[in-house]
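PH domain-containing protein, Culter alburnus. Tokens?
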Amino acid sequence: MNQCKVMKDGYLEKRSNGLLQLWKKKRCVLSEDGLRLYDCKGESSKEMRFEQMTTLDCVEYKRGLVYFTIVMNGGKEIDFRCQQEGTAWNAEIALALVRFKNRVAVQTGRNRHLSHLGSCGEGDVEL
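Tokens:
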């Protein structure tokens, strides 16, 4: 994901998995391939690739904040929130996810078409 175009860079809060489910501020970088989350010191990061995401759900607006959930393959849900100003992170992530899935669908269609052309090629001539 490092060599992909950066589409948005800024801060989100992620709900922790712990018992208290505290909100932790993360520096986030959105690219064409996914979302990378950095801890507040910038020392470690976690990558959430679009190929592992199913959808972005549960958008709610409360007290100047946008709350949303990213659903991963297998059903794991990861909750985020951000300030409700400008183009919100949830919209940017959702659009990038749709673009990624469309790109994959087009490539899959091309590959099927090319493999179909290959299977109907010169090797199939009957004598």
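The chain has a mean pLDDT of 86.
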